[in-house]
Design brief:
Order of helices and strands: HEHEEHEEEEEEEEHEEHEEEEEEEEHHEE
Protein name: Flagellar P-ring protein
Distance between the termini: 61 Å
Pfam family, one: FlgI
Number of helices: 7
Number of domains: 3
Subcellular location: Bacterial flagellum basal body
Radius of gyration: 33 Å
Structural class: alpha+beta
Largest sheet: 6 strands, antiparallel, barrel
Shape: flat
Strand content: 35-45%
Oligomer: single chain
GO molecular function, one term: structural molecule activity
Strand order of the largest sheet: 3-4-5-10-7-6
Function: Assembles around the rod to form the L-ring and probably protects the motor/basal body from shearing forces during rotation.
Length: 370
């Protein structure tokens, strides 16, 4: 094999590697956008968990638990004498929450989360009794019931207590049955709208171009977030058409430069678009130390005084020498953070330095503090 052939083969391998890298960076439309109107709906309900092993609500402190028990027994034909004081330990009042997925049909089962409302110690081993789950419009969309699974454990004795994970929240897998459907107008109208997860003009334009390559003349960008697509009218043809569109891959536009700072923990997260201008950063620590020593003051003989304790305090203020860091234009923020860490900047100092760089116009990124 000649040298020219070897060079051509090497170039082919390089191009193939670049094509694979580009394909790996591509994302599907279903990962970048959602179809307008296709959404989840939150459900909520109030119920009781029974069968607890003495870890339920203290009914003297949670009167709503007692009232719920009385109402439930009354609905079942059990009437308690007036003034009856219930002292129960095996019942807990809970809030039941669930998410109703789009296109859910009657009879389908969904998971529910059960959270204690009172002072129950644990929901482990309990059973959620029949609980209606309502939507924001007040209508009942599902009915929940089942055994509560709590992924935790706890033990107490001799004044000591050990708890692993959270015992006052549990989950019932498939514990709710859908009773009412939420209509999704996917098959109505001439157009279907895609909403980008993050508004961006560049990504919207690339998405329009990708869809039009697959189906020419069907996609139009309404703004930086929404794309209008002309779709077939029939429901079967529309579902097939949307299935093809969601699998189209495209390279999203590069996001705006942003730095996220968690002021509580000192965490700093940045994206690859962050760049810096030419600047100089000085960092120094100011240390204040107070040392106290106790001594005994003993009076002279025949002085008539009393022995007393004396506290001697020494206050010292020390400022470490500040290190001047020169940042070249175009340097990445990662280089700056690495240099600041090298000169001893702690996370709180790093937050202050980044804020000062942003104020000075040296940090070419949006600074967001959470």
């Amino acid at each position: 094999m000649s040298l020219t052939h070897k060079i051509l083969i090497a170039l082919m391998w390089v191009l193939a590697g670049l094509m694979v890298a580009d394909a790996a960076r591509a994302e599907r439309i279903k990962d970048l956008a959602s179809i307008s109107g296709v959404r989840n709906n939150q459900l909520i309900g109030y119920g009781l968990v029974v069968g607890l092993d003495g870890s339920g609500d203290q009914t003297t402190q949670t009167p709503f638990t007692v009232q719920s028990i009385v109402n439930m027994l009354s609905n079942m034909g059990v009437t308690l004498p007036p003034g009856t004081s219930l002292q129960l330990k095996n019942v807990a009042a809970v809030m039941v929450t669930a998410t109703l997925p789009p296109f859910s049909r009657s009879g389908q089962q969904i998971d529910v989360t059960v959270s204690s409302m009172g002072n129950a110690k644990s929901l482990k081993g309990g059973t959620l009794v029949l609980t209606p789950l309502k939507g924001a419009d007040g209508q009942v969309y599902a009915m929940a019931q089942g055994n509560v699974v709590v992924s935790g454990a706890g033990a107490a004795g001799g004044g000591s207590k050990v708890t692993v994970n959270h015992l006052s929240v549990g989950r019932v897998a498939g514990g709710a049955t859908v009773e009412r459907e939420v209509l999704t107008p996917l098959g109505e109208g001439e157009f279907v709208y895609f909403d980008l997860n993050a508004a961006d003009f560049g990504t919207a334009q690339r998405m329009v171009e990708a869809i039009n390559r697959q189906s020419p003349g069907t996609a139009t960008a309404m703004d930086a977030r929404q794309i209008r697509v002309r779709a077939p009218v029939g429901s079967d043809a529309r579902v097939s058409f949307l299935g093809v569109l969601e699998s189209i891959e495209l390279q999203p536009a590069r996001l705006a430069a942003k730095v996220i700072i968690n002021a509580r923990s000192g965490s700093v997260v940045m994206n690859q678009a962050v760049m810096l201008e030419n600047c100089a950063v000085a960092h120094g620590n100011l240390t204040v130390s107070v040392n106290a020593s106790n001594a005994v003051s003993q009076p002279n003989p025949l002085a008539g005084g009393q022995t007393a304790g004396v506290t001697n305090a020494q206050i010292e203020i020390r400022q470490d020498a500040g290190s001047l860091l020169h940042v070249q234009s175009g340097a990445s923020l990662a280089d700056v953070i690495r240099a600041l860490n090298a000169i001893g900047a702690n996370p709180q100092d790093l937050v202050a330095v980044l804020q000062a760089m942003k104020s000075a116009g040296a940090l070419r990124a949006e600074l967001e503090i959470i």
